Amino acid sequence: MRQSDVSFIDQVKVQLKAGDGGDGIVSFRREKYVPFGGPDGGDGGEGGHIILRVHRGLNTLEKIHSQPFYHAGGGKRGGKNNRTGANGESLILEVPPGTIVKNAETNETIIDMEETDGEFIVAHGGRGGKGNTRFATPTNQAPYKATSGGMGEEFTALFELKVVADVGLVGLPNAGKSTLISTITGAHPRIADYPFTTLQPILGAINLSDGKAIVIADIPGIIQGAHEGVGLGLDFLRHIERTKMLVYVIEISPHDHHLPSQTFHDLQHEIRHYDPSILQRPYLIALNKADLPEEENDISVILFSFHESCPDIPQDRIFVMSAREKNGTEPLRERIISLYMDQGFANRQI
């Protein structure tokens, strides 16, 4: 999987309007030698729906963002000779996996597309009105009554995208997540030596022998106060909600041996205040940029300090590596696979 060249948009507000139903009509048969023909007014057609359809090839809401208003076709009026009006044309909107739609005014969640079979009517068209034929009775054989078509549903919708990935890479800006995902999956994110190079989730995949894959997301850097919306914090944190596992990518500091453990606690603090249930998921820790310390002894001191500060973390969950030099990344890759399989997670087909 490669990063798309299109703009990454994960939140869009648009107006949705389903089609109105067509009106029923009042009409009477006009036949030669039949001066008082019976009613023959047809019903109106049904209004078109607005239908959401998941497209597995999309990873952004850019297509929805392209216009502010979407409306389906309206039903046509009924006709003479009891002809029903044509139904309005339904509108199909393609969305990426992981899309959630909310009512923008009430913030009520209307649908999570991950809980559907891939399609959902998000706005129903109005019913067609009834022609006067429907109102004929033994005591009123020439009714002058017909009904108007119903209004199609209309509301302001908030589309949100939560990346669907099995493993989320989380860390501070410039921790080396983009380099790591490119090393272990072959993804091609933009990489540079300054913070916030990654401003959108990047997806890569570890291909498995059975033709399936573990999808990994490089989540943009999390900063202090992210859970309160500092920077783009809430937008970034939203993308780890669906992950099954986390990999904390933490930069080794040659100048402060205590910084990696402090960084780990800071990241957990932000996630805990956003959604504490995320911390219950399996995780690994990648102590990255091992090429920075000048002395090998520094690595041992950093590891000792980390274990001392985080004694409850099993040693087989901690990996020291240099993603840039591709040293130590293969054991992490293999551990991601084994932990994923041990947990019994269903593999993803790409």
Give your account of this protein's structure.
The chain has helices at 62-65, 177-185, 233-238, 259-274, 296-309, 329-342, and strands at 11-17, 50-54, 69-71, 91-95, 99-103, 109-112, 119-123, 154-161, 167-170, 202-207, 213-218, 245-251, 283-288, 318-320. It is an alpha/beta fold and 350 residues long. It has two domains: 11-161, Spo0b-associated Gtp-binding Protein, Chain: A, CATH 2.70.210; 167-342, Rossmann fold (3-Layer(aba) Sandwich), CATH 3.40.50.300.
Tell me the strand order in the biggest sheet: 10-11-9-12-13-14
Average pLDDT for all residues: 84
What kind of sheet is the major sheet? Answer: 6 strands, mixed
Helicity level, as a percent range? 10-25%
Q: CATH superfamily of the largest domain, please?
A: P-loop containing nucleotide triphosphate hydrolases
Q: What coarse outline follows from CA principal-axis ratios?
A: rod-shaped
- How many domains comprise the coordinates? 2
Low-confidence stretches: 1-6, 189-198, 226-233
Radius of gyration: 29 Å
User: From the coordinates shown, what is the CATH architecture of the largest domain?
Assistant: 3-Layer(aba) Sandwich
Estimate what percentage of residues fall within beta strands.
Answer: 15-25%
Subunit arrangement of the protein? single chain
Using DSSP, what is the number of strands? 14
Can you identify the CATH class of the largest domain? Alpha Beta
CATH topology of the largest domain: Rossmann fold
Distance between the termini: 9 Å
Order of helices and strands: EEHEEEEEEEHEEHEHEHEH
- What structural class is derived from the secondary structure elements? alpha/beta
- Give the helix tally: 6
